[in-house]
Write a structure and sequence with these properties.
single chain, about 325 residues, mainly alpha, 3 domains, 12 helices
Length: about 325
């Protein structure tokens, strides 16, 4: 299905193509080129700088709060510690309520969610609860879940998923330290399921909720989905000690997810070159490591293997670029 030409962005190449096809007059083509290459107006720069400074300022304030507690920990009483953090949380929540869905309100709610983690950390240090680190991050994610669910802010959802991922990794490291290698490798599948569910949610609800329309969050979740299973799949190919059902499932997950992305995101209106490049790069990494295993370990080649491996990498990169260019041109047609 071809895309509506009126939905395509006005790039200089497309404008020149229209002029060459005599669809634009010379004066209209010159004006279109000026508009397509013009710098953003002063209002756009002002809005961009205001948002940027707001985000940087909020990050610096939160970092200052954490360093304040670290430096003055011994001089502060327990009630002073709790009072300061609670005052910060209340102020951030009030700001989020006052400014609503504007960027200032969303950043305020994000700050409140971050301070909840600081409150839990201070509570654990003051009363020495003996809780494991994974319990801190799990409780943190659970407490901020209602705020995140109502925030309509992509960064807040990123924070929530990151907290869940950290909790899972810490649980595997602290509670399953002496487990078998197959159980240890299974953490990659759990992370694949968590980040994959978040990625799928972004894809399914992007057209229903406007705040999910920017693609950066879905692409970030997609990268996080591929990363753990790809690392295990590469280890399965090159390391003879990595075996078991979990490692094989990681390899299947990489192949199946890459195939699904190439089938669903390489054509039509849902085309996404980043996701296609991510899937192709994952397959190229697997293929390159498999060829390297054959050359260096199975065939015992050294100098000749390095030369052949270089040719394989060049061929993979060339094929990847050619496929992406073909898909990009098909989308512009």
């Amino acid at each position: 299905m071809q895309r509506d030409p009126f939905q395509l962005s006005a790039t200089p190449d497309r404008i020149r193509a229209l002029y060459s096809a005599r669809a634009l007059k010379p004066s209209a083509a010159r004006r279109a080129l000026e508009l397509s290459t013009a710098s953003p107006p002063r209002e756009a720069w002002r809005a961009f700088l205001a948002r940027g400074f707001l985000l940087v300022g909020a990050a610096l304030v939160l970092a200052g709060i954490l360093f304040f507690f670290a430096y003055n920990w011994a001089d502060l009483g327990r009630f002073a510690k709790f009072a300061l953090i609670l005052c910060g949380i209340v102020a951030a929540v009030v700001g989020a309520w006052e400014w609503g869905e504007r960027i200032a309100g969303q950043v305020s709610l994000m700050a409140a969610a971050v301070l909840v983690g600081a409150l839990l950390a201070v509570y654990g240090q003051v009363y020495q609860t003996g809780a494991d680190r994974y319990e801190l991050f799990a409780a943190w994610a659970l407490l901020v879940l209602p705020w995140v669910a109502g925030s309509r802010f992509q960064a807040a959802w990123l924070l929530l998923v990151a907290l869940v991922d950290v909790a899972v990794c810490l649980y595997w490291g602290e509670m399953l330290e002496g487990a078998s290698d197959d159980v240890q490798i299974a953490v990659a599948l759990v992370l694949f399921a968590i980040d994959g569910a978040a990625w799928l949610g972004c894809e399914l609800f992007a057209r229903r909720f406007r705040w999910l329309e920017p693609r950066w969050l879905a692409r970030l979740f997609a990268t996080a989905t591929f990363a753990p299973v790809l690392l295990v799949a590469v280890a399965l190919v090159v390391d003879h000690e990595v075996r078991g059902a979990s490692a094989v499932l990681c390899l299947i997950a990489v192949l199946a997810t890459s195939g699904a992305v190439l089938a669903l995101r390489s054509r039509g209106e849902r085309r996404d070159l980043y996701l296609v490049a991510l899937a192709l790069a994952s397959l190229a990494v697997l293929l390159g490591n498999f060829v390297g295993e054959l050359l260096f370990e199975q065939a015992g080649m050294r100098e000749g293997g390095v030369l052949l491996m270089g040719l394989v990498v060049v061929a993979e990169v060339a094929a990847l670029v050619a496929i992406l260019r073909r898909i990009a041109r098909a989308g512009e047609a």
